[in-house]
């Protein structure tokens, strides 16, 4: 089992549900947060397919505007900026810190890889108290291609001086699992609330109901 473990950030490590009060105030329905995030995913997937990279912050704000238009609600500049700032202070899921520390205690090398900007990722992990858990923090803006395109995973391998086969990508998104596997990585899926695997898509090497279970399985394979 590879000794380099790569983690997605938003939803995998950090709890985006902390934004629910913002969406409740803006739309009168906290569940709109899920619609917004799916719209954001659609935006970066489109940007990648058509090879027209746009900064993550722009996509975050554009997705919020689109969500508002669907519902006939005008979204202001201040509200868009409030969302951007809210993303920087997301709390970690309750199972994350202990799980990461366990991997570190067993001598594994941890890297964070985000579709967000590098500056935001650093702020997020610092705010969540997770910075010291990672040997490296990386972002797709360096290659200007969003996951699940192969370039971000290959970038990590090149920066670490390893092959993609020596990495395990941990994520709560089926598209991230598919992208990493297609790039040659081992994969581990965390079934965060509302996140499911594609039954006809690429399946992960490891899957668990929470980060604790995923880490236990990673360590069992190491043994």
Structure summarized in a few sentences:
The protein is α/β, with parallel strands linked by helices. Helices cover 47% and strands 12% of the residues. The protein has nine helices and six strands, in the order βαααααβαβαβαββα.
Topology:
Layout: E1 4-7, H1 20-27, H2 32-49, H3 56-70, H4 77-87, H5 96-105, E2 109-114, H6 118-127, E3 136-139, H7 150-160, E4 167-171, H8 174-182, E5 186-190, E6 206-208, H9 211-222
Parallel strand pairs: 1-2, 1-4, 2-3, 4-5, 5-6
Could you please describe the fold and organization of this structure?
This protein has 223 residues and is of the alpha/beta class. It is 47% helix and 12% strand. It contains nine helices and six strands; from the N terminus they run βαααααβαβαβαββα. Helix 2 (32-49) packs across helix 3 (56-70) and helix 3 crosses helix 4. The model has no long low-confidence stretch (mean pLDDT 97).
The strand order across the widest sheet is 3-2-1-4-5-6
Radius of gyration: 17 Å
Question: What helical percentage do the residues reach?
Answer: 40-55%
Major sheet: 6 strands, parallel
User: What is the assembly state of the chains in this entry?
Assistant: single chain
Q: State the secondary-structure class.
A: alpha/beta
Distance between the termini: 9 Å
Q: Strand-and-helix sequence, N→C?
A: EHHHHHEHEHEHEEH
Q: Which stretches are poorly predicted, pLDDT < 50 over at least 5 residues?
A: none
Report the β-strand fraction as a percent range.
5-15%
Mean pLDDT: 97
What is the overall number of helices? 9
Tell me the total number of β-strands.
Answer: 6
Q: What is the molecular shape?
A: globular
């Amino acid at each position: 089992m590879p000794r380099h473990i790569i983690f997605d950030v938003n939803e995998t490590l950090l709890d985006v549900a902390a934004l629910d009060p913002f969406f409740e105030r803006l739309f009168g329905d906290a569940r709109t947060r899920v619609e917004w995030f799916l719209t954001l995913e659609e935006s970066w997937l489109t940007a990648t397919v058509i090879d027209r990279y746009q900064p993550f912050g722009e996509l975050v704000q554009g997705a919020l505007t689109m969500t508002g238009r669907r519902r006939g609600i005008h979204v202001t500049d201040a509200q868009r900026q409030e969302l951007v700032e809210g993303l920087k202070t997301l709390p970690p899921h309750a199972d994350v810190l202990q799980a990461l520390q366990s991997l570190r205690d067993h001598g594994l090398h941890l890297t964070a890889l985000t579709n967000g900007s590098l500056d935001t990722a650093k702020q997020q992990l610092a705010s969540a108290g997770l910075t010291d858990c990672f040997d490296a923090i990386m972002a797709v803006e360096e290659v200007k291609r969003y996951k699940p395109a192969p370039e971000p995973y290959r970038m990590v391998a090149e920066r670490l001086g390893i092959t993609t086969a020596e990495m395990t990508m941990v994520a709560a998104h089926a598209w991230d699992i598919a992208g990493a596997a297609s790039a040659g990585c081992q994969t581990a899926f965390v079934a965060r609330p509302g996140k499911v695997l594609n039954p006809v898509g690429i399946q992960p090497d490891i899957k668990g109901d929470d980060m604790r279970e995923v880490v236990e399985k990673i360590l069992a394979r190491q043994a």
